[in-house]
Amino acid sequence: MIVLKSAAELETMHQANVLVHETLRLVAEAARPGTSTGELDALAEDHIRAAGARPAFKGYRGYPASLCTSVNDVIVHGIPSRTQKLKDGDILSIDCGVVWQGYFGDAAVTVPVGEISPEADRLLRVTRECLGRAVEQMTPGRRLTDVGDVIQRHAEGAEFSVVREFVGHGIGRSLHEDPQVYNLGPAGRGPELRPGLVLAIEPMINQGKPGVVIDEDGWTARTEDGKLSAHFEYSVAVTSDGPRVLGVDGR
Ligand code: MF3
Ligand code: CO
């Protein structure tokens, strides 16, 4: 069941996502060679709790941390650790969720650590562009798979591949609501997009093949071929005036 949100609910979800984006900025600035992903997690949790909110991922199906920190070949759901130090040339996906006044915010960015290779830089740029194009589809009258179609076309056009095992999702009073948002076409399928729909859109794009393997910890999802993967996510509302990226676009 798809739950549409009122203007007041969108305002609360915007506030939740303002905190998410603040946290992402704070963590991104601290992500330098020698910093551990465990330290980044503590920084995020402190910031979220100081704002009077709660980390959304901690305890979710037993997940042990406030952030997912996914380095290099880790696609998503990397678990922060005090023993994992970032190195010059790494790429780091930082995924953050909060609960604020009963509503969830969820967003992610992939950032360079120190100096990265031109190919890694191109992967980050193309994945960010995939999300940008997806956001443009979030307008009344479009259909759900129009979102995934532009992601797939842009990623594959750049000779990268789209992860199939994980998807974006509706978001609101729960972290994961209907519908699931595949990062794939073909366009023109699924429910019509209507004002008040909020989707967490999260392209996960691999440098090599799309295959995924999961570590023994039951969470860490890596590329099967060991090549790099990037991930960006926004919580985006459909409004009568077009897309609104919550936590980023004021209104
Ligand atoms: N952004 C991811 C998602 O929406 C993060 C979830 S991590 C989990 O699925 F631990 F909460 F599962
Ligand atoms: Co998400």
Characteristic key phrases:
binds cobalt (II) ion; binds 2-amino-4-trifluoromethylsulfanyl-butyric acid; 251 residues; Creatine Amidinohydrolase; alpha+beta
Explained architecture:
The structure is a single chain. This protein has helices at residues 7-30, 37-50, 118-136, 144-157, and strands at residues 54-55, 67-71, 74-76, 91-100, 103-112, 161-162, 168-170, 177-181, 198-201, 204-206, 212-214, 221-223, 229-231, 234-239, 242-245. The chain is an alpha+beta fold. It has one domain (7-245): Alpha-Beta Complex (Creatine Amidinohydrolase), CATH 3.90.230.10. The strands form 4 sheets. Strands 8-7-9-14-15 form a 5-stranded antiparallel sheet. A hairpin with a 6-residue loop joins strand 7 and strand 8. The longest helix is centred in the N-terminal third of the chain and has 24 residues, at 7-30. It is globular and about 45 Å long. The relative contact order is 0.19. The protein binds 2-amino-4-trifluoromethylsulfanyl-butyric acid and cobalt (II) ion.
Summarize the helices and strands and which ones pair or pack.
Blueprint (H helix, E strand, L loop, with lengths): L6 H24 L6 H14 L3 E2 L11 E5 L2 E3 L14 E10 L2 E10 L5 H19 L7 H14 L3 E2 L5 E3 L6 E5 L16 E4 L2 E3 L5 E3 L6 E3 L5 E3 L2 E6 L2 E4 L6
Antiparallel strand pairs: 1-4, 2-4, 3-12, 4-5, 6-10, 7-8, 7-9, 9-14, 10-13, 11-12, 14-15
The structure holds 2-amino-4-trifluoromethylsulfanyl-butyric acid (MF3) and cobalt (II) ion.
